[in-house]
Amino acid sequence: MSKSLKLFGAAALASGGALLVAYNFADRNIAMVPEDVTRMNGNADPDYMMMFAAAASDAPADGPLELGRAATGEEIAAWDKDVSPDGTGLPAGSGSVEVGEVLFSENCASCHGEFAEGVGNWPKLSGGEGTLADDDPVKTVGSYWPHLSTAWDYVNRSMPFGNAQTLEDDEVYAIVAYILYSNFLVEDDFVLSDANFLEVEMPNAGNFVIDDRPETEYGRFSGEVCMSDCKEAVEITMRAAVLDVTPEDEDAPATNVDEASVEIPEVVEVPDANIDPDLIAAGEKVFRKCKACHQVGEGARNRTGPHLNNLLGRRIGQIDGFKYSKALTEMGDMEKSWDNHSLSDFLEAPKGYAKGTKMAFAGLRSPEEREAILAYLAQFSE
Prior knowledge:
The chain is an all-alpha fold. Among the domains are: 94-199, Orthogonal Bundle (Cytochrome Bc1 Complex, Chain D, domain 2), CATH 1.10.760; 277-379, Cytochrome c-like domain (Cytochrome Bc1 Complex, Chain D, domain 2, Orthogonal Bundle). 35% of the residues lie in helices and 2% in strands. The chain has helices at 3-29, 46-58, 73-79, 97-107, 109-112, 148-158, 169-182, 213-216, 277-286, 326-333, 340-348, 350-353, 367-378, and strands at 94-96, 191-193. Strands 1-2 form a two-stranded antiparallel sheet. The radius of gyration is 34 Å and the shape is extended. It starts with a helix and ends with a helix.
């Protein structure tokens, strides 16, 4: 036998041996592909394919993918805060009109007025009787809302503005009692509680009807949709009567809103060379928490809160045309002025610094945030 044939035979035997070993390994360790395996389009997103493969590898053969888990009873209870018209969900508690008046003044009046009459464009919670048929109806708790549970649920979930879900149950009862009193629905000695909650009759409750649009309207809009040349001519048939409906909308067109005619000096933003520009930028972001009530910069005016131009060095509670709380007015009468130290203390805990202030904001607990916003406001001081 030639030398070449011997080498070829040895190579063939080695290859055959390797194939035999590989076959035995595969037979013992690699499962067959199931006939009902879920197949995926080869053009699918790679990230999705990886997620699918990871989930499918742990999924039972005949069950769900088992992503996540069922929520516990405690977790559901933490989110389940709703109160139904029949009283389901109401916690035990009570609150009087007398207590509610104080709480409303401290937490709600800065936006809704001392008598729930509304400030500026913030919602009116009282009044509006007999206006629902008007072209511009006033929809308040007393004139429009069909269920008292809506008021209790909303106050409990979302108020006070910027400090939601900080009220105790008894405080919510008291505030709702005061709103009822402001609408002349209860007397001044009334105490609202879970026991008498359903006894309160809302004037407009009988004027709501069951939503029958699935039967009466949906069919009219289920046909072919027109996407072009749907009308021969387009013309303006009506114009909005109220244009300034969004509080603090800086881009809104000028309207005939009656504002205090106060001369406010123009302020040019000239950053102090000694202040870190990054700190100013951080303060501008923090100021977003304040923009709902305050304006600063060129053209700033008093709105729900006073304008903040020239704030540093300004006498406390003394801007013409703005109605301050008694606490801040008295500080100004004592010739106290805003500086970095007093502003920082006030911003940390407004109601702790000036008991009785109408500012509903809970405060900035972070020293870094207070330092940043002071640097930002310093730009607008002469």
